[in-house]
């Protein structure tokens, strides 16, 4: 039989694990590395006309949180990251995030609110911009990833 103080400590530790397991917080599915990614340089390719327009819209609406060239900041994650490759976060995911917001699930930045000021045409341009950045930075190499462009 365990002494009372050891049994009490064990009970407290088990209770803490049980509370943590039942908290509903999702654990990241990927190794996200640095907290923001802003220290990771992003290669900017020669952008298509649509992606250039997307860059302008991105800078006006998204860069405050997602950083210049979608490299991330202390307020939001980098979008030039393997988490956001087209096979895991399809273009629909970006549209949905802008239009409806999204609950935090890969990062610890909190929920993203909707951005109703972003016009639908600009959303498509922003997606094209992000996809061209991703492709230039080795996130994907498949032409299908550029469907928005």
Report on the structure:
The protein has 149 residues and is an all-alpha fold. The protein has one domain: Cytochrome Bc1 Complex, Chain D, domain 2. The chain is 42% helix and 0% strand. The protein has 5 helices and no strands. It has helices spanning 4-21, 49-61, 63-66, 91-100, 120-136. Helix 4 (91-100) packs across helix 5. The radius of gyration is 20 Å and the shape is globular. It starts with a helix and ends in a 13-residue tail after the last helix.
Can you count the helices?
Answer: 5
Low-confidence stretches: 5-35
**Count of distinct structural domains:** 1
Per the principal axes of the C-alpha atoms, what is the gross shape?
A: globular
- Measure the end-to-end span: 68 Å
Instruction: Count the E strands.
Output: 0
Q: Sheet with the most strands?
A: none
**Secondary-structure arrangement, i.e. CATH architecture:** Orthogonal Bundle
Instruction: Tell me the CATH superfamily.
Output: Cytochrome c-like domain
Helix percentage range = 40-55%
Q: Which class best fits the helix and strand makeup?
A: mainly alpha
Report the mean per-residue pLDDT as an integer.
81
Radius of gyration: 20 Å
CATH topology: Cytochrome Bc1 Complex, Chain D, domain 2
Listing every helix as H and every strand as E from the N terminus to the C terminus, the arrangement reads: HHHHH
In the CATH scheme, the class would be Mainly Alpha
Strand content: under 5%
């Amino acid at each position: 039989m365990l002494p009372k103080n050891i049994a009490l400590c064990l009970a407290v530790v088990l209770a803490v694990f049980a509370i943590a397991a039942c908290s509903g917080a999702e654990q990241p599915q990927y190794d996200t590395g640095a907290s923001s990614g802003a220290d990771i340089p992003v290669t900017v390719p020669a952008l298509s006309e649509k992606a250039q327009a997307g860059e302008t819209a991105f800078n006006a609406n998204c860069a405050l949180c997602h950083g210049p060239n979608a490299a991330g900041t202390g307020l939001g994650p980098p979008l030039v990251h393997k988490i956001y490759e087209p096979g895991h976060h399809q273009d629909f995911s970006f549209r949905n995030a802008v239009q409806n917001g999204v609950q935090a699930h890969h990062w610890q930045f909190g929920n993203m609110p909707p951005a109703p000021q972003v016009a639908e045409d600009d959303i498509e341009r922003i997606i094209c911009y992000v996809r061209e950045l991703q492709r230039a930075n080795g996130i994907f190499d498949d032409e299908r990833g550029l469907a928005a462009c």
